[in-house]
Amino acid sequence: MFFDTLTLSPLSRLEKKRQQALNLGKVPPAAAAFYENPVPLATAKLSDLSFTALDFETSGLDLNQDSILSFGGVNLSGDQIDFSSGFHHYLKVGDKIKKDSAVINQITPEQLSSGLDSDEARALLIQKLAGRIVICHGAMIERSFLLKMLGLKPNFTLPLIFLDTLKIERSLMHRQFKVDDLRLCTIRARRNLPPYVCHNALADSVACAEVFLAQVKDVFGKTRPTLGQLYKRSL
Amino acid sequence: MIESSLLPNIYDFIAHTYPFSLLSTLEQDTLAASVKISYYTKDDVLADESLSGVGLFMIRTGAAEQINKDGTLRARLGVGDSFGYTQLNKQGASDYKVCFLENTLIYLISRQILEFIKSRNAAVGRYFDGREYVRLNSSHHYLNEGDGYLNSRLKQSTASCCRPLVSIRPQETIEQCARRLKQRGSELAVVQDEEQLLGVITKSDIALRAVAEGLPCTLPVSAIMSPRPVIIEGSKPLYQALESMLLHNVQNLPVVENGTVIGTISTRDLLQNSLLQPLYLMKEIARQDSVDDLIKLSAQKGEIFSTLMQLKVQPRTIQRILSKLADAFIKKICALIQDECTAPPCAFAFFAAGSLAREEVQFLSDQDNGIVFEREVNAAERSWFKDYALKVCTALDKCGFTWCSGNYMACNEKWCQSYQRWQQYYDQWILEPDQKALLDISVFLDLRCEFGDEFLITKLKQHLLKNAAENSRFLALLCSNATAVSPPLGLFRQFVLTRDGQNKAVLNIKNQGISLISELARLYALQAKCLQNNTYLRLEQALDDKAAAQDLAEAYTFLNDVRFAHQFKALQAGQELSNFLPPAELSQFERNHLKDAFRIIARQQSAAQLRFGKGIR
Hints:
Structural class of chain A: alpha/beta
Structural class of chain B: alpha+beta
CATH superfamily of the largest domain in chain B: Beta Polymerase, domain 2
Largest sheet of chain A: 5 strands, mixed
Mean pLDDT of chain A: 87
CATH architecture of chain A: 2-Layer Sandwich
Helix content of chain A: 25-40%
CATH topology of the largest domain in chain B: Beta Polymerase, domain 2
Low-confidence stretches of chain B: 141-151, 155-161
Largest sheet of chain B: 4 strands, antiparallel
Number of domains of chain A: 1
Helix content of chain B: 40-55%
Distance between the termini of chain A: 11 Å
Number of domains of chain B: 4
Mean pLDDT of chain B: 85
CATH architecture of the largest domain in chain B: 2-Layer Sandwich
Number of strands of chain A: 5
Oligomer: heterodimer
């Protein structure tokens, strides 16, 4: 993070970075699509923006060793999740699948062998996410693996906004009630949202999108929701 | 399309929510994949543009209230309930608004998708019809899918009961006839000249009348046919086919429509549907010569109720069959006990009151009855009737028609009186009506002769009808009683929601639903001087507003259906039967339709109040 431009909002700083990269011709070719649209302003109304809730299932948390096994997502527009926009794909990752993760994800080598190869997956994800705002639960994983997929370093600043339902949830908790368990299913149970089958990328992304809708209501009440507040809470 | 296993939440919900559970897997997939999800918080409101013409809102979690334009509560909705479908074809202003009571997750099915699904599946289309009676009617489509049930018309059940016809001319040979029977797999051939029915020949006729007698099979069939056979009209219910077969001791009946034979029906066809049980029981009852034997037979009532439920016979027919059985028991008991006693001092009639008079007995019904004797009697004669009534009522109790809790029975001296006294009773009830007293005696406003001199009962009924119809104050008070209990608005979670927004723990489906309809029907029947006792017939004949009659009849059928279904379940589980339904035991399907039935009743109660209420002033 750069703190030399404290006067600027985080979103404006991101936009500034995007413009610099464009001006200096330093846009990484693989990520060019993410530089095409300006980063929205902090005051942008949610109803004017397009969102995609995204979830990756990975073989583990080690960026160097592990890989994406499947990804799924769903679009939100206004205050509605459009289920017909849902997508879900497996990746062809050869022998990368570990016993442990297979137990958690219930993803079998057979499913993976018929999946997309990494070029196809990259192209598809870029097409799904460019020009949109990404919503994830624990966005760190998705951001890191996406950067890795694009051949970029983990600390690279991509002008793609990630809103993180995990961080937003933490920001909404009173200090004395802060709890460690911020798993999606726990949050959903606390919020009286229906239980769902965890660890399926599409189901997780829908589950995350539903939590997001609830959080927006919490943060803004009857006032008109804007992007800035949510982004700050996601940092 | 995404594979359904990947969207378990939405897919499961759609697949298990009526009426979408009726759809094919592919249609369910389409529907699930088109869902839009929204989230509302407590005090959020949907109204007008955000509701009209939008689609079907299904509550996945949370709760909401529908508020009518006049501010009254329309319904309270919980998980699995939906709203918006009556507003599908509206623009702008909606009939009600929806206020969320809790944070609520909504699955929205857009109008376009819903229209598509409705066009694909007729049952779903009826379910989402804007009219309550169509929706209620759609609720018992499954009843008609049974294997041909007692009440279905012969003609309609051609597929299951009416066999294709083997028709043969009188001059054709016995051999030709036998061959044709073999080809068609039929038991019976009808002998016809042109269109005229001359006789019938069964397989056994060929064996017994031709082969066993050594007749050559080259003889014309007319030589061995049974001429002038018993026939049955295609418009008659199956039930009558059974009666006719037993009465005439035949196994096959030609089915006739407009003078033309359209098929045949056999006992075997009926046996396959296990429809004969009630009739055998009735025959058995008539054959017994002691009350003890009758008591033994009465145990079969439960089996018959179960069979009828399993066959998905419609509630109206179940009530009629149970009533016919009750009639058979009463008639036989009355006759047996009269034989035990000395001759009665004078002519008398034993009559049924209440639900049995209406032929609407249910498995739980207790006995309501009375005795009318033709003249005033002395003390000795009175004691004959007293003794007789007690014996009859005791025997009825032992046969499962339990003692009436209100003591509306012939063994109560008050209800065992001379014609003159009964007439005085009715005069007093009708000419000087007292609201509270009317509540007590309403059971005697339905009466039907069971045994003895039927004319006494007919006379009494005529007297009642003549005076009642002309007394607007009596009708007004009756109306006030009939509308004193309001049906609930519906069910909300594990509660019954009353009109004032209160939550009650159980639904009394009789007092809060079924009785309200039979009381309205009686009110209209009395006003129209209609002799019918049965609620359906009263609605049909005494109500000018045919749409209202249809509404009420559908509601009546549905409520009885729900009651019977729950009593059947209790019977199978060996639990005690009752009219109390804990809402938790009601399916989403029943909840939705109950709401429609309750709305119909509430509307018709208001209509009755407008019509009869003025007599109070």
